[in-house]
Specification:
Blueprint: H1 7-18, E1 26-29, H2 34-50, E2 54-60, H3 67-81, E3 85-89, H4 99-114, E4 120-122, H5 127-139, H6 144-147, E5 153-156, E6 159-162, H7 170-179, H8 196-211, H9 215-244, E7 245-247, E8 250-252, H10 253-257, H11 261-274, H12 282-290, E9 300-304, E10 307-312, E11 315-319, E12 329-332, E13 339-340, E14 343-344, E15 347-349, E16 355-359, E17 365-368, E18 372-375, H13 376-382, H14 387-390, E19 394-398, E20 401-407, E21 411-415, E22 421-423, H15 424-428
Parallel strand pairs: 1-2, 1-4, 2-3, 4-6
Antiparallel strand pairs: 5-6, 7-8, 8-11, 9-10, 10-11, 12-16, 13-14, 15-22, 16-19, 17-18, 19-20, 20-21
Length: 429
C-alpha cells in the first residue's frame, strides 16, 4: 500500500502556494538531493490540486564527477512527474572567495537568468540548515542581519524566494522521503569536513544535540528573533532616512553626524540596501564615518566590492562603482536615440546639420541667453553637480563653438543662445 504524503509538509506547501499570485509559476530549485527531491515530489501534488504552474531548475556546477549523475536523476524525476525542467550548466569562478561562496553566486546568477520576474522560487532549506547558517554567521562575527540567517520569504531581483520547510527539521524530511520510497542522489562532498558547513554538520551539531536535544530548533528560533529585530530596525531606519535624504542615494552629512555611531552605521547600511548596493564591511564603514567631518570641498571616496561612498559639500553619496569612460565622440543629427557610453540619448536638437558630441575636455565656453559668454569650468564650479559627475558630461559642439551641455540620457544643463535642446518627453508633449 502506498504511503500518504505527510500532512504537515503538504500544509506548509499550501501556505506557500497561497502567497503565489494565480497564474504565476512556482519553480523548485532541484539539486537532486533528499530535501529538494522530496520538495519537488510534494510540490507536484500540491500544484496539481490548485492548477498552479510548476517548473524545476537544476544547476550543474560541474565541480565533481557525479554532476552528470545528479543531472540525469533530475531529468528522470521531472519526466516521471510531468514537470518541465530547466538545466543550467555554470562555471564556478573561485577567484577572491571560497568554493562554497563562489558556487552560491554562480547558482543565483543562473536563477536570475532563468526564473521570470513575478514568479516564485521554492528552496528546500530546513531548520537544521538555518541553525548551521546562524552558527557560521556568529563565527564570522556577523551583525544582526547575518545572525537572522535565511528568511522564509524574500523579494529578490523581482522573484519571490520562499523556503516552505524552514521550520521543519532534517529528520522529519528524511522520514517522509523514506516513507514515500523516494529515490534521491547522495552528494559525496557532503561528507567532506574541509567545508565549513559540513564540519559544523558532522562534528559540532551532533555534540550540541547530544547535550541539548533541541539545539537546532533553538538556534533556528534565535535566527527568527534576529530576523524580526532586523526588520524592525530597517523600518525605523527607513523612516529616519526619509528626513535625511536629499536625493537618490544622497543624505545630509550634518544631520547624519548628529546621530550616535551605531545609528550612523544602521542608517548607512539601510541606505545601501534601499539602493540595491552591498553593505560595506565593518572596517570600510568605520573609515567612511570618520571622514564625514572632512572639509566642505574635500572629495572623500571609500570603495568596497560592488559599491562606493563619496562625501562632498556635506553630502554623502552611495552608488555603484563608476565605470571608466572610453574614448568617444559621435556625429549627431539632433534626433533622439543616439547610443552613448552613458545611455541612449533622449534629447532633440533643432539643427539642419550634424553636430559633434564628445566628453568635456576643458576650455569650453558657452554663450548663454541673457548672460553672455561663460566659461564652462566656472559654471560647473558654481553648480551643485558633484566633481565626479562633471567628468561624465557630453558637450554639443559645432566646430569650436559649444552649443550645449548634456547629462545623459535626458538632462540638459545649459544651452547656448538661439539653440533649442529639448528632452524627449517634452518634445513628445
Amino acid at each position: 500500500m502506498a504511503h500518504q504524503p505527510p500532512k504537515l509538509l503538504l500544509r506548509l506547501l499550501g501556505d506557500a502556494l497561497a502567497e503565489t499570485p494565480p497564474g504565476r509559476t512556482v519553480w523548485v530549485a532541484l539539486s537532486g538531493g533528499l530535501d529538494s527531491t522530496l520538495l519537488l515530489v510534494l510540490a507536484a501534488q500540491a500544484c496539481q490540486a490548485t492548477s498552479q504552474p510548476l517548473r524545476a531548475i537544476h544547476i550543474n556546477h560541474g565541480l565533481q564527477a557525479h554532476a552528470a549523475v545528479f543531472e540525469a536523476h533530475c531529468k528522470m524525476l521531472c519526466d516521471g512527474l510531468g514537470v518541465p525542467l530547466v538545466v543550467e550548466r555554470v562555471v564556478v569562478d573561485t577567484q577572491g572567495e571560497g568554493i562554497e561562496g563562489a558556487a552560491r553566486r554562480a547558482r543565483y546568477h543562473a536563477f536570475k537568468r532563468c526564473v521570470p520576474v513575478g514568479d516564485t522560487l521554492w528552496l528546500a532549506q530546513h531548520q537544521d540548515d538555518q541553525a548551521e547558517t546562524l552558527l557560521l554567521a556568529a563565527l564570522r562575527g556577523s551583525g544582526i542581519r547575518g545572525l537572522a540567517g535565511m528568511p522564509y520569504r524574500r523579494e529578490w531581483q523581482g522573484v519571490t524566494l520562499l523556503r516552505p520547510w524552514l521550520s521543519i527539521n532534517r529528520q522529519t524530511l528524511a522520514d517522509a522521503a523514506h516513507g514515500l520510497a523516494i529515490n534521491w542522489c547522495e552528494d559525496p562532498t557532503n561528507r567532506e569536513v574541509a567545508f565549513d558547513r559540513n564540519r559544523l554538520r558532522h562534528h559540532v551539531m551532533p555534540l550540541l544535540q547530544a547535550r541539548w536535544p533541541g539545539a537546532s530548533r533553538s538556534l533556528a528560533q534565535s535566527a527568527q528573533h534576529a530576523g524580526e529585530a532586523d526588520q524592525l530596525l530597517a523600518e525605523y531606519a527607513a523612516d529616519e532616512l526619509a528626513n535625511l535624504t536629499i536625493g537618490p542615494g544622497c543624505i545630509n552629512v550634518a544631520a547624519l553626524s548628529q546621530r550616535s555611531l551605531p545609528r550612523q552605521r544602521l542608517l548607512v547600511r539601510t541606505l545601501c540596501q534601499q539602493q540595491g548596493l552591498p553593505t560595506p564591511p565593518q572596517k570600510r564603514l568605520e573609515s567612511l564615518l570618520v571622514q564625514l567631518e572632512a572639509s566642505r570641498d574635500a572629495q572623500v571616496k571609500v570603495a568596497w566590492e560592488g559599491a562606493e561612498a563619496r562625501v562632498w559639500r556635506k553630502r554623502l553619496y552611495l552608488m555603484a562603482p563608476l565605470v571608466p569612460l572610453p574614448v568617444w565622440q559621435a556625429q549627431w543629427d539632433g534626433h533622439p536615440g543616439l547610443a552613448t557610453p552613458l545611455g541612449t540619448l533622449q534629447i532633440t536638437l533643432n539643427t539642419s546639420y550634424p553636430v559633434l558630441l564628445r566628453w568635456r575636455q576643458g576650455g569650453e565656453v558657452i554663450n548663454l541667453p541673457g548672460r553672455g559668454r561663460r566659461d564652462l569650468k566656472r559654471l560647473l564650479q558654481e553648480s551643485e553637480l558633484p566633481p565626479w559627475e562633471r567628468e561624465r558630461l557630453i558637450v554639443v559642439m559645432d566646430q569650436e563653438t559649444c552649443l550645449g551641455v548634456i547629462q545623459p540620457p535626458a538632462t540638459i544643463l545649459w544651452q547656448a543662445a538661439g539653440i533649442t535642446l529639448t528632452p524627449l518627453q517634452c518634445a513628445a508633449g
